[in-house]
Design a protein that fits this description.
This protein has 477 residues and is α+β, with helices and mostly antiparallel strands. It contains 11 helices and 6 strands. The chain folds into 2 domains: 348 residues, Outer membrane efflux proteins (OEP), CATH 1.20.1600.10; 86 residues, Single Sheet (Outer membrane efflux proteins (OEP)), CATH 2.20.200. The strands form 2 sheets. It has a 4-stranded antiparallel sheet with strand order 1-4-5-6. β2 and β3 form a beta hairpin. α4 runs antiparallel to α6, α6 packs antiparallel against α11 and α10 runs antiparallel to α11. The longest helix has 68 residues. The chain is elongated.
């Protein structure tokens, strides 16, 4: 056995002893524990509105046009698309790390060695051929291909690539989750705009009603049936209602500008329809089964992929404790004269070597990386559990909210009807002197407030419809 071979065997033996004897730090471990309830306290049915495309879920063509524009032009959406591109490049980089690195090297230089040195003395006494001395200074020209490859014994590099793939898929789910959020925000702002339009119309109609009542009070004053106090009270009420017009108009402007911001454009009028106050769009919305959230909610899928990536990162960090094997090779030509550069075999050069390296003394940095990877995995697990819990609670809240809003809307509709009738009755009684002006004023004020509340409830119903569609994971497909 040659001395060179014995050295190789000794190195391999030492590496094997080290590998088998390496004791990893003890780390905490957590297991995924997701026990979703079987239903949302409703009838168990797998039918789920989240399977509907957003174009089919929203029946308003104006709203669909706004959503389509937002998905195309929203700056945050476009930023997240670039995040996906960046993540895909990371996958490429990780994939390339476990493939051989091959490079072409060409260089040229001059080397002048001191005469009174061992190398200088040898060159001074060297002849290339009889009568031809070694050039001084000595040029050097080389053209060679070099290769380097880390043998992925412990799958460290391949696991790093798998982790990068999981993170890439997580960025896609993050973009999908933002899509559902963006669609919901545009829809909610649109319904708020419709509600404000309806409030503006009701306020204008109420101003006309109050002006008519003011004229009646003025006539009653001329007939000495009421005092100037009654006239001023009615005038103040008209002015108060008129001031509300400007507050509503300001809200309309701000809501329009918010929609324009979501659409990635400067302020301009928003084309829209009209609010149907009597529509019952939230009576029956199938929500499916809780277990469907795991597949339908992009944020849940993103948290799951991040958890998977964190688990793989532990394997990558664990592999750093083990020896690594790197192979290096080169093949090419080298000569001091370009005329001799491509002569074979005289000018040919080649090398091949293998290096085995393992951490031996200072492993604190590797331990810290390993412990950090484990802590991140536990953190990702808690984040996944929290995301699933939050998803279920969001749906449960919206299911209850829709039911309660429907009941509240029915009662408020009856209230508006009763107060509208009382407004007409109080006007007639006032004309016949069977009711005073304060009763008329209070009745009109109560009727207006009840209409505002009814519109607000209708808006909340529409928002709840949007929210449960979002909570179930609808909109991104």
């Amino acid at each position: 056995m040659t001395q060179k071979k014995s050295h190789i065997y000794i190195a391999l033996f030492a590496a094997t002893i080290y590998t088998t004897g390496c004791r990893l730090p003890v780390v905490a471990s957590k297991t995924t524990n997701i026990n979703l309830p079987k239903n949302y306290k409703t009838v168990s049915d797998s039918t789920n509105i989240s399977t509907l495309l957003w174009r089919d879920f929203f029946k308003d063509n104006y709203l669909n046009t706004l959503i389509d524009t937002a998905l195309e032009n929203n700056q945050e959406m476009n930023r997240m698309i670039q995040e996906i591109n960046i993540s895909s490049y990371e996958v490429r980089a990780k994939k390339g790390e476990y493939l051989p690195f091959v490079s072409l090297n060409a260089n040229s230089g001059v080397d002048k060695v001191a005469r009174y040195t061992n190398i200088g003395a040898m060159e001074a006494n060297t002849q290339i051929k009889p009568g031809t001395d070694m050039p001084d200074p000595l040029p050097n020209h080389m053209l060679a291909a070099q290769a380097s490859w880390e043998v992925d014994i412990w799958r460290k590099l391949r696991n790093a690539k798998k982790s990068a793939v999981k993170k890439y898929l997580a960025t896609i789910e993050g973009k999908n989750f933002f899509t559902t959020t963006l669609i919901a925000e545009v829809a909610n702002s649109y319904y708020e705009l419709l509600a404000l339009d309806y409030q503006l119309q009701i306020t204008e109609n109420n101003i006309d009603l109050q002006r008519n009542a003011l004229n009646v009070v003025k006539q009653q004053k001329e007939a000495t049936r009421v005092t100037e106090l009654g006239v001023k009270k009615f005038e103040a009420e008209v002015l108060k209602t008129q001031s509300k017009l400007y507050a509503i108009q300001q809200q309309i402007t701000e809501t329009e500008n918010h929609i324009n911001f979501l659409l990635g454009r400067y302020p301009q009028p928003i084309a829209r329809g009209r609010l149907n106050i009597n529509s019952l769009t939230t009576q029956t919305l199938p929500v499916g089964l809780p277990e469907q959230l795991l597949q339908n909610r992009p944020d849940v899928k993103k948290a799951e992929l991040e958890l998977q990536a964190a688990k793989i990162d532990i394997q990558v960090a664990k592999a750093n404790f083990y020896p690594s094997l790197r192979l290096n090779a080169s093949l090419g030509y080298q000569a001091f004269n370009p005329a001799y550069l491509l002569r074979s075999p005289e000018s040919m050069l080649y090398t091949i070597a293998g290096d085995i390296m393992a951490p031996l003394i200072n492993r604190n940095a590797i331990k810290a990386t390993y412990l950090s990877a484990n802590a991140k995995q536990i953190q990702a697990l808690y984040n996944y559990q929290r995301t699933v819990l939050n998803a279920f609670i969001e749906v449960a809240n919206q299911v209850a909210k829709i039911n309660n809003l429907n009941k509240s809307y029915d009662l408020q509709s009856q209230q508006v009807q009763a107060l509208s009738q009382s407004t007409a009755i109080s006007g007639e009684l006032f004309k016949s002197a069977r009711a005073d002006y304060m009763e008329v004023l209070m009745t009109q004020r109560d009727a207006l407030e009840s209409k505002y509340e009814l519109i607000e409830t209708k808006k909340q119903q529409l928002n709840a419809m949007v929210s449960i569609y979002q909570a179930l994971g609808g909109g991104w497909k």
